[in-house]
Amino acid sequence: MSVLAGIVKNILVIIILTSFLEILLPEGRLKPFVRFTVGLFILISVLNPALTFIFKNQEVKVSMWDYTEKYIDNREILAKGNNLNEEIRKQSSTVVGEKIQGQISAVALMLPEVEDVTTRAYISDEGRLEKVHIIVRSRKGEAEEKARAGVFAGQHNGRKDKADEEVVKKKITSIIQNLYGLAEDYIQIEFEGGS
């Protein structure tokens, strides 16, 4: 009985809406479309209660009648975005570090006293240069050959090597300070090999 009452109630609502639309719409091209849609509404209003009566265990839903907004959790989207942002920041930080290391090595190799340079740049999370560690191998030139000859002759002066290293160290430190604005305390230079 409740199924029949639901069908009658839905049909009455549709008839009332149809009569208002008939009054508002003039005779024209839209009337056949309005009648078609009203007929579909009547079919749906009759079939929906009938199907629920036939399939009592299953719930039959007409998706157009029941609008449900798909809810997406914002926290999940934000977490994925933060993970992606962190990954991009790490990649860019390593790329920046490699580029800075290459620049410092190239500039240090321009000095005539330097044969080879190994550079390690420490980059902060913000991408700022924090510290530089440079290992310099001095060039073996004529002066060193003469110094070796002097050592064998008993005339070698170890202070000259230290003075040369200090000159190279000051030059490299000055260049890095001018290029990157890094304080002298954060520039560590070591010498190996040829000196």
* Level-2 CATH architecture of the largest domain: 2-Layer Sandwich
Share in β-strands: 5-15%
The major sheet is characterized as:
3 strands, mixed
Low-confidence stretches: none
Strand order of the largest sheet: 1-2-3
H/E series: HHHEEHHE
Cα end-to-end separation? 106 Å
Total count of domains? 2
Q: Helix proportion of residues, in percent?
A: 55-70%
Instruction: Look at the structure and give the mean pLDDT.
Output: 79
Q: Number of helix segments?
A: 5
Q: Indicate the CATH class of the largest domain.
A: Alpha Beta
Count of DSSP E strands? Answer: 3
The value of Rg in angstroms is 42 Å
**Given the C-alpha coordinates, what overall shape results?**
rod-shaped
Q: What do we call the CATH topology of the largest domain?
A: GMP Synthetase, Chain A, domain 3
The CATH H-level superfamily of the largest domain is ANL, C-terminal domain
| Quaternary structure type | single chain
Structural class: alpha+beta
